[in-house]
Amino acid sequence: MNHEIEKALSRFNEGFNCAQALLAAFAPRFGISEEDALKLAAPFGGGMARMGEVCGAVSGAMMALGLRHGYCRRGDKRAKEACYRTANRFADAFRARCGSIMCRDLLGCDISTPQGMAEAREKRLIITVCAVAVREAAEIVSELLGQD
Q1: Is 99 left (phi over 0), alpha (psi -120 to 50) or beta?
Q2: Given its phi and psi angles, is residue 16 left (phi above 0), alpha (psi -120 to 50 degrees) or beta?
Q3: pLDDT band for position 31 (50/70/90)?
Q4: The organism sits in which domain of life (predicted)?
Q5: Residues 116, 109: contact at Cβ < 8 Å?
Q6: What does the domain layout of the chain look like in residue ranges?
Q7: DSSP codes joined into one string, 51-112
Q8: What pLDDT is recorded for position 147?
């Protein structure tokens, strides 16, 4: 297991959310401080601020990939397509490993409701399911960045 994958798991186990764990692990590679990465990714945990939408590990991974493959010139269609192609490769790989990119689907409950959050806590889904999502997302990002 490489350093960035270990770092993502470590940050998650320290209590940072899934998106924070992913972006903080890879951001320093691109000159972004871990502190700035943690701040930037903070609202993306729990499927966008606990709304159960796109998994925070997926969002954090996409941001990390954007640091390498993102585009910043208006009208740069080639760069835009390359960025989206990489993002889609990530999403396809994550779906293949985890079954979905949606938080509520991964957890099997909707954490945007009090009942769903209670169920997630009772079943310890954040510790079990989310930790796996963080690891898988970090592994895929590492693989995709290694192919460059």
Answers
A1: left
A2: beta
A3: very high
A4: Bacteria
A5: yes
A6: 3-146
A7: SS-B-HHHHHHHHHHHHHH---STT-HHHHHHHHHHHHHHHHHHHHHHS-SBHHHHHTS-TT
A8: 65
pLDDT tens column, 46-63: 999 999 999 999 999 999
Q: CA–CA separation, 31 vs 93, rounded Å?
A: 26
* Torsion angle of the four alpha carbons 92, 15, 127, 125, in this order, in degrees rounded to the nearest 10: -80
Contact between residue 98 and residue 133 where contact means Cβ atoms under 8 Å apart: yes
Which residues have C-beta within 8 Å of that of residue 43, sequence separation ≥ 6? 49
Would residue 52 be called left, alpha or beta, if left means φ above 0 and alpha means ψ between -120 and 50 degrees? left
Contact 9, 134 (CB under 8 A): yes
Instruction: Quote the mean pLDDT of the chain.
Output: 96
- Over pLDDT 90: what percentage of the chain? 96
Residue 17 structure tokens: 């959310």
The pLDDT assigned to 25 comes to: 98
CA distance 41 to 36: 9
Rg (CA), the chain: 15
